[in-house]
């Protein structure tokens, strides 16, 4: 009889211990969630962001693996986009057919699914386990929703769309996922959906931007049939040089924009000079040398010009400058010339030498490279010239004669 109070106290202490552990667990999860949200502002790289979110989900839910499937618009199939944990490499190239599997059900219904034992669920798509070697026991799958903006009339209209499904597999403890796991995973998945939506919007806007400037540049090239495609080739050569120099995606993107736009100032050069079949007179050459300044003036009229376009503008001004100061329009020398300007300068000269012009035939590639090498350190940045040569050796640089004729 005397042990009953002691037993009651022991049970109460055990309950308090469990509540304390549960409270500490919630606090730790909230702190980890806040930390994750803070880390999301440190990069704009979509793959890096999504991997970070899914890695943190796997850690916080004490799971064996996590993954994100995106819905392929054409087929409705679900394509593995991000995977963490076991067998992540084996998922590459695989897909779940539309409407199949638990992820397929989530994509179609928009409802989350918590399956404690997949062996008891006939929807389970076991083919993925067979192909990857992973053994799925339990699944928590959540839809990834975004808001589409439908334009039309006086204002846009928001419509919800499911763009994918995120799933977490197998708690390491063997226990089922609980309500707190569901809430936490849904919070993380809402961030993943936002990342995907922003990335998609950026991609669409970037495609529109690049298409617009390419069309504008092509209209300038079209004024002279001998320079057709020149700006796009320069952009390709410059991007190849930048990559050989170890420049990352953002900087290479700047170089590509600079290459496409480098000659837009020629829109202000008279046709009689631009299309002259013979060599230019001294006066005509002086007019032609004004085109970088015209291009700068055009760029300065762009509303709310961004830092990106400012860098491109400098590159447009400087692609005819030379290391020894004998270039134009400002006679800059050495380090006064921006790196982008030096890259585009080498790419521009290489295309000019290897393209057919009214007054001469295209030079052989070997001769063009010899001319560039002869000017290293005096006219051209040696690192840029050698990077072009390396890119050419790896098949990344095709000259005008090696490309399909756009008129055929």
Topology of this structure?
Blueprint: H1 3-39, H2 46-60, E1 63-71, E2 78-85, H3 101-109, E3 113-115, H4 127-132, E4 139-150, E5 157-171, H5 179-221, H6 230-244, H7 249-261, H8 271-274, H9 282-288, H10 291-300, H11 307-318, H12 339-354, H13 365-374, H14 382-393
Antiparallel strand pairs: 1-2, 1-5, 3-4, 4-5
Helix pairs in contact: 1-2, 1-5, 2-5, 6-7, 6-12, 6-14, 7-11, 7-12, 10-11, 11-12, 12-13
Task: Explain what this protein looks like in three dimensions.
- With 408 residues, the protein is α+β, with helices and mostly antiparallel strands.
- The chain folds into 2 domains: 185 residues, 2-Layer Sandwich (Beta-Lactamase); 181 residues, Hypothetical protein af1432 (Orthogonal Bundle).
- The protein is 51% helix and 12% strand.
- It has a 5-stranded antiparallel sheet, with helices on both faces.
- The longest helix is centred in the middle third of the chain and has 43 residues.
- It starts with a helix and ends in a 15-residue tail after the last helix.
- The model has no long low-confidence stretch (mean pLDDT 82).
The CATH fourth-level homologous superfamily of the largest domain: GAF domain
Q: Beta-strand percentage? A: 5-15%
Question: Got a strand count?
Answer: 5
Whole-number radius of gyration?
30 Å
Mean pLDDT: 82
Q: Strand order within the widest sheet?
A: 2-1-5-4-3
Order of helices and strands: HHEEHEHEEHHHHHHHHHH
CATH class of the largest domain: Alpha Beta
Main structural class: alpha+beta
Please tell me the CATH architecture of the largest domain by its name: 2-Layer Sandwich
Poorly predicted runs of 5 or more residues: none
How many domains? The number is 2
Q: Any idea what the shape is?
A: elongated
Do you know the CATH topology of the largest domain? Answer: Beta-Lactamase
